[in-house]
């Protein structure tokens, strides 16, 4: 049995990762989550999993924790737009919080799988969120270089799926369109809608995280996407219904598209879920 710590394990990605790890039956799982995120919920708790309800920045006070083999570091303040309002808070949680996790890993000789962001490819200085997530990557590389901590960076591309936030500042675009479709409202599109995104299913992301944990890496980065992108207008057309256009927002890339050739080759991973099929099943569920 490998002892695993999942930070942010009650949130959207983290809870799905915990569910997948439980099916493998080879992991002893502990979750660290402060339940601050819009997607975090006590409803996501599972049997045979240990839970610590606290902030990642407080990890060093837990001196009696087991010696974990792997830390999946998913806890973070998410999304670009709200980070413009509280840049220091986003930096403190996403960068300093990551350093606390890495220092904890250094002391117990744990491997760290870090959840990066596709904002890296659009420019690391376009938003406080993107900058702080990139700083987290650099912290991983620094700890690998100086302290030989095993770290691997996984860059997520527009994750969607069950339990995704669909309301508030942290909602995903697929989640927003789902809620608006359920409520029989027009679909809200930012800017022209011609900006393109690589949408990746939550289960593909979780399989990628586990694949990244299998070998020993030292600051290596792997994109987790599909290699296919769609415009927001095309996404809206999949849902159907009326569209409403609102002004363009700062800090957002025009195009995201993952090059997963390296990920497929070295991690032996590839995505298996289709956005179109997911939306089709969603619409059928409403009938």
Count of alpha and pi helical runs: 9
CATH architecture of the domain at 2-159 and 200-226 and 258-272, by name, is 3-Layer(aba) Sandwich
| Helical content (DSSP H or I, runs of 4+) | 25-40%
CATH class of the domain at 2-159 and 200-226 and 258-272: Alpha Beta
Largest sheet, spatial ordering of strands: 3-2-1-4-5-6-11
How many whole angstroms does the radius of gyration measure? 18 Å
The total strand number stands at 13
End-to-end Cα distance, whole Å, is 44 Å
The run of helices and strands is: EHEEEHEHHEEHEEEHEEHEHH
Strand content: 15-25%
Q: Mean of the pLDDT scores?
A: 97
Structural class, judged by helices and strands? alpha/beta
According to CATH, what is the topology of the domain at 2-159 and 200-226 and 258-272? Rossmann fold
CATH superfamily of the domain at 2-159 and 200-226 and 258-272: NAD(P)-binding Rossmann-like Domain
The major pleated sheet works out as: 7 strands, parallel
């Amino acid at each position: 049995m490998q002892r695993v710590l999942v930070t942010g394990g009650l949130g959207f990605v983290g809870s799905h990762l915990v569910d997948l790890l439980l099916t493998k039956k080879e992991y002893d799982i502990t979750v660290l989550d402060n339940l601050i995120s819009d997607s975090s919920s006590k409803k996501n708790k599972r049997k045979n999993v240990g839970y610590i309800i606290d902030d990642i920045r407080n990890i060093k006070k837990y001196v009696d924790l087991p010696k974990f083999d792997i830390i999946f570091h998913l806890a973070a303040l998410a999304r670009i737009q709200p980070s413009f309002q509280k840049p220091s808070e986003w930096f403190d949680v996403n960068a300093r919080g990551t350093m606390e996790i890495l220092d904890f890993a250094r002391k117990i000789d744990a491997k760290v799988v870090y959840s990066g962001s596709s904002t890296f490819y659009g420019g690391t200085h376009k938003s406080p969120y993107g900058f702080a997530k990139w700083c987290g990557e650099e912290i991983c590389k620094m700890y690998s270089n100086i302290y030989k901590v095993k770290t691997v960076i996984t860059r997520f591309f527009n994750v969607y799926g069950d339990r995704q936030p669909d309301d508030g500042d942290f909602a995903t675009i697929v989640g927003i369109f789902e809620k608006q479709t359920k409520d029989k409202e027009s679909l809200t599109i930012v800017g022209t809608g011609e900006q393109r995104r690589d949408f990746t299913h939550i289960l593909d992301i979780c399989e990628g995280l586990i694949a990244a944990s299998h070998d020993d890496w030292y600051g290596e980065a792997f994109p987790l996407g599909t290699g296919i992108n769609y415009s927001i207008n095309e996404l809206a057309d999949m849902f159907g219904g009326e569209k409403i256009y609102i002004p363009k927002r700062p800090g957002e890339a025009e195009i995201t598209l993952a090059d997963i050739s390296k990920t497929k080759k070295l991690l032996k991973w590839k995505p298996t879920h289709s956005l179109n099929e997911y939306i089709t099943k969603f619409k059928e569920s409403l009938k």
